[in-house]
Amino acid sequence: QVGFSPLHSASVRGLRPLHAMAKGSLHNLAARSPAGRKAQNAGASKVLRHGSIKVKATNPQEANRFKWVVQDQKYIRRKATPRGGPPFVIEAGERWLDVGANVGFFALSALAQGAASVTCIEAEKGNLSRLRSNLKLNGHGARRARGLR
């Protein structure tokens, strides 16, 4: 059994991504431009922690995303997903595929909740490098988690 993160599986089914339904946006337009990303990444990284999870965030948007994904668990839907879909929970022993993994917040959350492994796909080189760093920071070896491009 392979699960998909709800943000991306919702997009595949033609539903609005979950982050678009959240109050406020996790991204701002400046962060999407190369100049905006460079300016935001110029600051020092900050280590964020929640339970056994720790990550390095380089800007306020990442800190907000960490809160949204890891602390508040906004991806998890214990009763049902939008439009009457099945519940979306992470069960012990499951294997997950996280497409568009960004810097690994969902993957780390899934592993902390008992997933056997997570394969992360991330196209952007900088994000992939940071994803791998976050996995290493949490002690996850290639058997439990890996980042691919």
Structural features, described:
- By secondary structure, the protein is α/β, with parallel strands linked by helices.
- Helix content is 38%, strand content 18%.
- The chain has seven helices and six strands; from the N terminus they run E-H-H-H-H-E-E-H-E-H-E-H-E.
- Strands 1-4-5-6 form a four-stranded parallel β-sheet.
- A hairpin with a 2-residue loop joins strand 2 (46-50) and strand 3 (53-57).
- Helix 5 runs parallel beside helix 6 (105-112).
- The radius of gyration is 15 Å and the shape is globular.
- The chain starts with a strand and ends with a strand.
- The model is unreliable at 6-31 (pLDDT under 50).
Give a brief outline of the structure.
This protein has 149 residues and is α/β, with parallel strands linked by helices.
- Pattern of helices and strands: EHHHHEEHEHEHE
The overall pLDDT, averaged over residues, is 78
Beta-strand percentage?
A: 15-25%
- Give the overall shape: globular
Oligomer: single chain
Helix/sheet category? alpha/beta
How would you write the strand order of the largest sheet? 1-4-5-6
Number of strands: 6
- Helix-residue proportion: 25-40%
Low-confidence stretches: 6-31
Tell me the span between the first and last alpha carbons.
Answer: 22 Å
Number of helices: 7
Rg, nearest Å? 15 Å
Main sheet specs: 4 strands, parallel
